[in-house]
């Protein structure tokens, strides 16, 4: 970002609408990975009976995602830090995004057979790694396209665009390939072909809608005071250690928030990651019914997130997050205790869950973005990703462990709710109003 634009952001002037929309289109496109790959289509496909025992595979998916989380925890802050100092934030957003696009396209080769399960799990885990790397740079660009007065609204608009993009893509996938006996281009469900072709569509979708932010938003340019001499990759960890020590001394409440948000964000991710798996294996949803639910879920989440963005700017992020977490716990426990009640339980309590997930995610991003000085967005959002991924094994591991111990998939719900509860308890003492990081 050029210096003149940096001054505009700091002074609270109106952001350029075209750049906001271009930035938000990445969220719209990312629904291809969030909704179609990790939640409602591909993970439901590879945890189905064609690949083996469904309860065992659900646990294996949890362990694969836990391993991916550990990789992200080690590497995310360094990638964010180096994008700050190199002035190539948008460049690395593009590189990581299109690696995810390629991994999504490769899911076409995962046929409906146990011998392809390992490939499927690897592609999902690797996709999560590079998607998170892309997210570090994407989140860091929030300050480039918003102002302090509009950051909540812009963040909510981006999250909402992601949910709306998910609705449109899921409708295309459902009516184009999953629902018909013979779909577009003669595609059928034999050997998982309908799902596999949907992965090709998802890859094209993400790649196409990632282009506006890469073409319309200028590359970031670090202020001179924030620039550092280039260091080796390994030396970057020494720099990171100094940065964390400085953050601890100058803004300890921010460190507390990073820890609390790491836990509850992992619980939020768990809600969506395992939502489709639970719908199919516990409540008997067919693949088509899962997608219908997904469309409704994205409508609810999208409207809620866009609506709450204005409240974030008016009331602050913490009240939004606290309310959302309490709502999630109540809704999730209803799903657990009433799991024998059939699909109506998942439709009602599950949609209630979706009402709260988006606002919590968006407000968490804006809480931190308001504190970051110009030139350190990638570094601090890298820490945001790292603290999140440092514990990102929690929800998958709690889910997998609960399923492994009790032998039934619905027990995984309780594992995810436990992670959300711990995050809520850690957030309570964090100050709602903080000074900007020095």
Q: Give the structural class.
A: mainly alpha
What level of helicity do the residues show? over 70%
Number of helical segments? 19
- Output the CATH topology: Growth Hormone, Chain: A
* CATH architecture type: Up-down Bundle
Please indicate the count of domains: 1
Uncertain ranges: 1-13
Question: What do these coordinates show?
Answer:
The chain is mainly alpha-helical and 438 residues long. It has one domain (15-220, 230-427): MFS general substrate transporter like domains (Growth Hormone, Chain: A, Up-down Bundle), CATH 1.20.1250.20. Helices cover 76% and strands 0% of the residues. It has 19 helices and no strands. The protein has helices spanning 3-11, 17-40, 42-46, 54-86, 89-106, 117-140, 142-145, 151-178, 193-209, 211-216, 235-250, 252-273, 275-281, 287-315, 317-337, 343-369, 377-390, 394-406, 411-427. Helix 6 runs antiparallel to helix 17 (377-390). The longest helix is centred in the N-terminal third of the chain and has 33 residues, at 54-86. It is globular and about 55 Å long. Residues 1-13 have low confidence and may be disordered.
């Amino acid at each position: 970002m050029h210096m003149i634009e940096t001054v505009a952001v700091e002074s609270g002037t109106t952001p350029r609408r075209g750049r906001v929309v271009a930035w938000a289109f990445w969220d719209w496109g990312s629904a291809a990975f969030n909704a179609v790959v990790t939640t409602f289509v591909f993970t439901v496909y590879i945890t189905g009976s064609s690949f083996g025992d469904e309860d065992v595979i659900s646990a294996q998916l949890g362990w694969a995602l836990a391993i991916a989380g550990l990789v992200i925890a080690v590497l995310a802050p360094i990638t964010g830090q180096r994008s700050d100092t190199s002035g190539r934030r948008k460049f690395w957003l593009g590189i990581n995004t299109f690696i995810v696009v390629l991994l999504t396209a490769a899911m076409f080769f995962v046929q409906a057979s146990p011998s392809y399960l390992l490939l499927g799990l690897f592609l999902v885990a690797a996709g999560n790694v590079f998607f998170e790397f892309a997210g570090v740079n994407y989140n860091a660009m929030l300050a480039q396209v918003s102002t302090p007065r509009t950051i909540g609204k812009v963040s909510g608009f981006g999250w909402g665009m992601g949910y709306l993009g998910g609705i449109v893509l899921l409708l295309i996938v459902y009516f184009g390939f999953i629902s018909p006996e013979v779909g577009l281009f003669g595609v059928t469900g034999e050997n998982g072909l309908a799902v596999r072709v949907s992965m090709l569509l998802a890859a094209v979708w993400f790649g196409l809608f990632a282009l506006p932010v890469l073409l319309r938003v200028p590359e970031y340019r670090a202020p001179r005071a924030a620039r550092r001499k280039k260091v080796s990759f390994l030396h970057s960890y020494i720099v990171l250690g100094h940065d964390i020590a400085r953050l601890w001394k100058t803004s300890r409440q921010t460190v507390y928030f990073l820890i609390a948000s790491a836990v509850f964000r992992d619980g939020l991710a768990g809600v969506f990651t395992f939502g489709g798996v639970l719908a199919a294996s516990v409540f008997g949803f067919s693949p088509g019914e899962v997608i219908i639910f997904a469309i409704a879920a994205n409508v609810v989440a999208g409207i809620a997130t866009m609506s709450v963005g204005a409240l974030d700017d008016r009331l602050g992020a913490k009240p939004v997050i606290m309310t959302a977490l309490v709502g999630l716990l109540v809704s999730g426990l209803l799903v657990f205790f009433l799991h024998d009640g059939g699909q109506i339980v998942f439709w009602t309590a599950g949609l209630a869950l979706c009402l709260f997930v988006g606002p919590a995610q968006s407000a968490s991003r804006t809480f931190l973005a308001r504190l970051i000085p110009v030139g350190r967005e990638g570094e601090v959002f890298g820490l945001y990703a790292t603290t999140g991924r440092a514990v990102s094994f929690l929800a998958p591991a709690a889910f997998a462990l609960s399923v492994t111990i009790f032998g039934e998939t619905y027990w995984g719900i309780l594992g995810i709710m436990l992670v959300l509860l711990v995050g809520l308890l850690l957030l309570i003492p964090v100050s709602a109003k903080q000074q900007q990081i020095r």
